[in-house]
Sequence to fold (169 residues):
Amino acid sequence: MSDHFASAPAPEPSRPVRHRPAHPPVVESADHAVIVFLTVCTHQRRACLANPATHTALLNAWHAAQNWRVGRYVLMPDHVHLFCAPGVWPPPPLRSWVAYWKRLATQALRETDPTFEWQRDHWDTQLRRGQSYGEKWNYVRMNPVRAGLVSTVEAWPYQGELHRLFWHD
Fold:
């Protein structure tokens, strides 16, 4: 028999197409910290976040939304990256907390920008290792430099740390 009749390799199984991000529940472990990396974008990626008024509105909203604690964060013109950890145990759904602070920030921001909107959903990932926390933070804090908005990380005014989130194994 010749190779001519050899069967073709089996096709790879297809993955489901996601139209919305998955939001798995927080995995509780007595041995590991619970820290979630979160990204929230503006509607249609409108560049309107990197300014003092928005920075203040977000800080106020995060202070009011105590069920989760915001650690390090970076505001970019059209999205925000942050790390958060439960402020109460058991933690309420992350989705509810995000909706709450988005609503608070939107109310404040619409006083000066009546058209302000967030994208409907968000992206979140629970960190699994302390090393990934440091690696993700180093990557995130470089975003303004990579985007050409500033020449050094320290020059970007729309970043900070509200609560120190400690990783433990």
User: Anything to note?
Assistant: The chain has one domain: 28-161.
